[in-house]
Every structure is written in structure tokens, then in C-alpha cells.
Amino acid sequence: MGKNLKVISQTAAVILAGFAVAILASSIIGAWAFIPLAIVYWTLIFCIVKPSKNDLKNIFTCPPVHLRYILLAFAPALFGIVSFAWGLRHVSGAILIAMWILFAVVNPVAEELFWRAYLLDNLSWKPIYRIIFSTVMFMISHLMWGVFSVTIRSYIMILPLLIMGLTWGYVYHKTQSLKWCVIAHFLVDIMNLSVWVFLNIYIPPVIQ
Prior knowledge:
Elements: H1 2-29, H2 34-49, H3 53-58, H4 67-74, H5 78-87, H6 94-122, H7 127-142, H8 158-175, H9 179-191, H10 194-198
Helix pairs in contact: 1-2, 2-6, 4-8, 4-9, 5-9, 6-7, 6-8, 6-9, 7-8
């Protein structure tokens, strides 16, 4: 019980701190608040998880897993194909492109380490409850980005986030590897054009 309470408290702290930074920063620099939010969010996650170099290396050196789990991990990326095609014309500016790539590289590692591996490995509940809890918290955590992003605070985002959380939680539980979850998450973050969505330069037509 004590360990569960610690993990739940850490989860709440990450979310509450994220909201505080998003609200404060957006009141000063508007949608550019995504930069300090990302820095604080990732820092908190790495401080809690404390991954070693070996842990990070092992993300991409997992033992062979059944093809069905690999395909399942990539299924949520299908949501991003249409959105990517719609928004590709907004991709411009060397600095924004660099930020986009950096976000897509760091964010999947940080989020999968925390929302999947850390929560599922450190809660003592039955697997289904751990996956549901991590998914719900994963969904709530994304609302912090919605403080300044019209797209992310839309109810349209509920289904994709729900599917991502449940799918990647299940894949991690069955394989005990983050490799395919991280790679799939990378593709999702690339295809959702995160930086342009954060800055409201690109708002998918289904949300407008």
C-alpha cells in the first residue's frame, strides 16, 4: 500500500506541476509555454524514474517478441496519417522543425518510461487495473498541453489518447519491453506535428 501511495503521489505531482507551469508560462509567453512545460515535465519524469544508461540502452535492445505485439503497438499511429497529410503544408522554419524532431525523440522515451514502465512495474494491483490507471493518468496529463493548444484540449483527442494508453500499456505488460511502444510513440509525435499544434499554427479541420 505504501509503495502504491508513493507512485500515485508522484503521478499527481507530475500532472499538477505540469499544469502549474503551463498556466503560468502561457500567461507570459502564450503558446510558447510548450517549451518550459516540456523541460519541467521531462525533468520531473527522469528525476522520478532515474533511468541508468543501461536502462535507456535496453529500451532498444529487447529480446524478440511476437509480431502481433509489434503490429498492435503501431496501430495507434494510424490515427496520425490523415492529420499529418492535412498539416504537412504547415511544416516550415528550421527552428520549428528542429524543435519538432527534438520533441519527437525525447518525449516518447520520457513518457513511455513513466506512464508505462514505471507505473506498471511499481503498482501492486492486478495488471488490468495498472493499465487502466496509467491510461487515465496519461490522458489527464495531456490536458496540460491543452492549456494553450486548441487541438489538444478538444474532446476529439479523448479516443486517440485512450487507445494509445491502453494499447501501449498492454504491449508493455505482455512483452516487458518499451522498444516498440517508444518507436510507435515517436511516429505518433512526428505525425501529429506537435510543435505546430502547440502553437496553434495547425489545427486539424475536424477540430476547427
